[in-house]
Amino acid sequence: MTTILSKLKAIAKHTLMPDKVSKPVTSFEPGTLPWIDKSGADIDSFIKNYEPAQSLPYDLAEKMKFWKQNGYVILDQAIATTWLDQLWSEVEELIENHEEYPINVRIDLPEYAAHPVMAIKDVPKEVLNGPYIKFLDFHDNSVIAKKIMLHKNIVTFLGAVFGDKVIGMQSLVFKYGSQQATHQDFAYVVSEIPSHLAAAWIALEDVHIDSGPLFYYPGSHTVNKFNFGNGIFYNDKSTLHPGDFANYLDKVCLDAGLEKKTLLIKKGDVLLWHAALAHGGDEIRNSTLTRKSFVCHYSSSKAYRHHRQSPTAEPVRRTINGADVFVNPTMPDQEDVFTVGKTL
């Protein structure tokens, strides 16, 4: 539990929080929900007027209806494996020559609990190459990571869900399964409109049942929100903790008759999920097995207007497929230092 708490505090430290209010927020504000989450959302009518829907390798209307009911969709073979191989080769370069890079990692090990976020150059190679390591916001540094994050197959769908331009907020790359307890992302990754949040889990290799695969509860995006004692967002003032959150979600999903599913997908497949989908990482039953993954979080243009490291400055933008990602204002010299993606 110590490592989970450290991890989530580290996330909260680097996340925009909503404006202060006089009383705790206990649910998403109905008036600010993405249109598809509101009652009476007419997906068929939306699709007729959504021009990007005409050039996708999947049926957008079908996927959106599935999303509304289940809180997730799977896009089969959505990303070219050559792009994924290039991304992972860059991660291996980071590990091999880590002294050369100021890029940050998060380490979810007890001995690093006091300082879970560190510059990669200050972390031993054997630690970087093991479990409980996440490379933070590598899309800042890599052209191919940006192209994958803002791939047309992903941002066209999320643009339809938000009804707005998509903004890539943050990303994680990791080699081994997270073994994270059940949670919902909105409690930790918060934009200016908390309901305007979605995520992508991109498989960089085929997933094995014993590698600690991701699990999720279809339909759980509609269950009542958990109150940490000071509202639905976890922070230093919360009186309840991630363990309480996990127990609540497992119980409320069980009581609602929601089935827990395990995600066993192939390299190049993408899972997209709703801000409130309950999910986590299963136990790694074979420590020799990896689960190489690229996870990205997204918001909308109206809900994420500034980089979380500089919440009052106008961001410098990179635009791909009509979606934006902001240049990291704290490390501008490290932006796009991995350039091979320009040729792919």
From TrEMBL:
Pfam families associated with the record: PhyH
Cofactor(s) it depends on: Fe(2+)
Record bears the keyword Oxidoreductase: yes
Superkingdom, taxonomy of origin: Bacteria
Keyword annotations from UniProtKB, A to Z: Dioxygenase, Oxidoreductase
InterPro entries: Phytyl_CoA_dOase-like
UniProt entry tagged with the keyword Chloroplast: no
SUPFAM superfamilies (alphabetical): Clavaminate synthase-like (SSF51197)
Record-level Gene Ontology MF annotations: dioxygenase activity
The protein's name in its UniProt record: Ectoine hydroxylase-related dioxygenase (Phytanoyl-CoA dioxygenase family)
